[in-house]
């Protein structure tokens, strides 16, 4: 009985397939019409076919269309497909109904006409060279583009308004054009697959690979992603349980990102838990992306070390833009950012200097980048600062104030590979500002005060007392006979510096060491590193304790020992300064002659 029933069911199934095949072979145009009606009912999109229509029964019942056009409602995006395949559920056909269980798209182009405000915001290839009025218009256009109607959310939701067993897209170009048809942006979707696409909140696995062409000789940016999502179209939400993303082209090493969270389709906003990795950098935290809000990106991240890949948070425009010269400011990137971030970074390498345990709050909008509450450790000392780089207009302006306390001079000099070797601690404070279009211009235009205070400073391989005692012995008509220490230990050393005109002016230098007091002024060219200084040394009786020939009497206590310094910071320290012995002896003889007269 069971075997007979099984045979009967097989016969009925074969007869049904034959009947369906006959129906399809006789009326393909009607089938296309039914499929088009179904698509329009579910998504609002209108399907037209200019090419051939092919039908197949195995391995599934499917309809393949060449040169098909799919137009979204309300002047939305238009899709032109080289090949569009639609898989059909068999049983609903018996009821003169069409249900799509597979959608395949290949060699297609999706063209979207940008809103006028969006088109104006995207029209400029670069913001460099624009006048203030033109920049104001650009910023206004970008703000207006963000306030596009909720139709934007409908456009996002349209591709999800399907119940399809399998969705497959290959070689699809997503092009945005202005109302005149000029291309504003292009994204190449190399492939996208999703199984069990639905709007009822059931889990859908997906994979995609897309490419964004670079400008000029820049390589393209490629994004590969795989994960699972749940779409609740009625609630206007998409939930990402886990999405793994690999980005190449933005940084020298691939950027690996894992996302999980919720997307609000109506507000075009998403809140995500994020972990990232690039080379040996690791990080995790939260990121909120809101297309219609400011900031567009709001992040709170902890990283083991800083990486330029963080600029990817501001979008491909900010991360991928490269100035023509290494010294030029990245104006386009700075002006594209609308980002807020709270950062905790284990290590930041700034040239030769390594900062650790860094905390910072960042806000960037329309070219104004503000760093506040910046703290960390630098060469054993504590650093705290605030800074604002304002590139809203050109040239950019810079303001910074802060302090470093208890800096280890030995570690700092070692990091700089300075020819001067020493030890001790230093504290710096500064309140400076500048303006310019590049890093060198900003350094050249720095103005403001800098103060230096130190403690327990020792300069190695330099004996200041020996140099002074040689002159004293010469004035006394005697010779030195005792060994001197190889290093110089300062009891106090402090300086007040004024920046301006591309130079650092040493307005006050005060230093004391056993037997000698120093005071002087000088000047340093910030970029070239050339400097000059004039220092006056006053003797104290304690100097005679180093050598009997170095005894200081009243006539020497009244003298100022001139030290002339000149050179370049990259030169040899032993060649920087010289004590003018002839001038000292001449002054001593003059004073002696006055006393005798």
Task: Provide a count of the helices.
Answer: 13
Give the strand content. over 45%
Structural class: alpha+beta
From the N-terminal CA to the C-terminal CA, the straight-line distance is: 147 Å
Query: Overall pLDDT, averaged?
Result: 80
- Basic shape: elongated
Residue share in helices? 10-25%
Please describe the biggest sheet, giving its number of strands, its sense, and whether it closes into a barrel: 28 strands, mixed
Number of strands: 28
Radius of gyration: 37 Å
Low-confidence sequence ranges: 1-19, 149-161
Write the layout of secondary structure elements.
Layout: H1 2-26, H2 28-43, E1 46-49, E2 53-56, E3 62-71, E4 78-88, H3 90-94, E5 100-113, H4 116-123, H5 132-146, H6 151-157, E6 164-177, E7 183-197, E8 200-212, E9 221-232, E10 237-248, E11 255-264, E12 269-278, E13 281-290, E14 297-303, H7 316-320, H8 331-336, E15 338-350, E16 353-365, E17 368-378, E18 381-390, E19 396-408, H9 409-415, E20 422-436, H10 439-444, E21 448-459, H11 464-476, E22 488-489, E23 492-500, E24 503-513, E25 516-525, E26 530-539, H12 554-557, E27 561-568, E28 577-579, H13 581-596
Parallel strand pairs: 5-6, 14-15
Antiparallel strand pairs: 1-3, 2-3, 3-4, 4-5, 6-7, 7-8, 8-9, 9-10, 10-11, 11-12, 12-13, 13-14, 15-16, 16-17, 17-18, 18-19, 19-20, 20-21, 21-22, 21-23, 23-24, 24-25, 25-26, 26-27, 27-28
Helix pairs in contact: 4-5
């Amino acid at each position: 009985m069971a075997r007979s029933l099984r045979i009967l069911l097989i016969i009925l199934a074969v007869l049904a397939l034959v009947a369906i095949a006959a129906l399809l072979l006789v009326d393909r145009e009607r089938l296309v019409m039914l499929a088009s009606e179904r698509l329009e009912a579910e998504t609002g999109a209108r399907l037209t076919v200019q090419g051939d229509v092919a039908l197949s029964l195995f391995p599934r019942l499917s309809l393949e269309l060449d040169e098909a056009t799919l137009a979204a409602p309300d002047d939305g995006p238009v899709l032109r497909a080289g090949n569009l395949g639609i898989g059909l559920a068999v049983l609903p056909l018996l009821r003169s109904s069409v249900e799509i269980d597979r959608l395949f798209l290949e060699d297609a182009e999706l063209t979207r006409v940008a809103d006028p405000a969006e088109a104006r915001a995207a029209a400029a290839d670069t913001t460099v060279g624009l006048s203030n009025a033109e920049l104001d218009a650009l910023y206004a256009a970008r703000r207006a583009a963000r306030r596009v109607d909720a139709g934007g959310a409908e456009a996002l939701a349209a591709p999800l308004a399907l119940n399809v067993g399998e969705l497959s897209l290959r070689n699809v170009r997503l092009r945005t054009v202005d109302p005149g048809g000029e291309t504003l942006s292009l994204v190449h979707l190399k492939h996208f697959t999703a199984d069990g696409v639905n709007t009822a909140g059931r889990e859908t696995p997906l994979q995609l690979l897309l490419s964004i062409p670079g400008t000029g000789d820049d390589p393209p940016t490629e994004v590969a992603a795989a994960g699972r999502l749940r779409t609740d179209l009625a609630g206007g939400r998409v939930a990402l349980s886990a999405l793994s993303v690999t980005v190449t082209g933005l940084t020298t090493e691939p950027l690996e990102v894992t996302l999980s969270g919720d997307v609000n389709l109506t507000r075009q906003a998403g809140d995500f838990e994020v972990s990232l990795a690039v080379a040996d950098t690791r990080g995790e935290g939260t990121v909120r992306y809101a297309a219609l809000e400011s900031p567009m990106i709001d992040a709170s991240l902890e990283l083991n070390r800083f990486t330029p890949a963080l600029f990817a948070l501001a979008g491909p425009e900010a991360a991928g833009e490269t100035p023509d010269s290494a010294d030029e400011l990245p104006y386009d990137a700075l002006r594209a950012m609308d980002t807020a971030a709270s950062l905790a970074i284990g290590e930041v390498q700034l040239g030769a200097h390594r900062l650790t345990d860094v905390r910072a709050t960042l806000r960037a909008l329309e070219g104004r980048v503000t760093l506040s509450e910046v703290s960390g450790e630098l060469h054993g000392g504590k650093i705290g600062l605030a800074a604002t780089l304002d590139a809203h207009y050109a040239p950019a302006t810079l303001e910074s104030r802060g302090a470093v306390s208890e800096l280890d001079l030995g570690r700092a000099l070692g990091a700089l590979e300075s020819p001067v070797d020493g030890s001790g601690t230093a504290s710096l404070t500064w309140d400076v500002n500048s303006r310019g279009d590049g890093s060198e211009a900003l350094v050249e235009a720095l103005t403001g005060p800098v103060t230096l205070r130190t403690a327990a400073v020792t300069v190695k391989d330099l004996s200041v007392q020996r140099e002074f005692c040689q002159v004293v012995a010469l004035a006394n008509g005697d010779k030195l006979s005792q060994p001197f220490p190889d290093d110089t230990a300062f009891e106090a050393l402090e300086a007040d510096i004024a920046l301006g005109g591309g130079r650092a002016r040493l307005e006050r230098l005060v230093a004391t060491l056993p037997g000698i007091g120093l005071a002087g002024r000088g000047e340093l060219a910030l970029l070239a590193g050339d400097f000059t200084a004039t220092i006056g040394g006053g003797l104290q009786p304690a100097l005679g304790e180093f050598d009997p020939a170095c005894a200081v009497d009243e006539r020497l206590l009244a003298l100022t020992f001139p030290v002339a310094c000149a050179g370049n910071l990259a030169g040899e320290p032993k060649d920087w300064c010289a004590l003018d012995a002839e001038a000292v002896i001449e002054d001593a003889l003059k004073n002696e002659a006055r006393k005798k007269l």
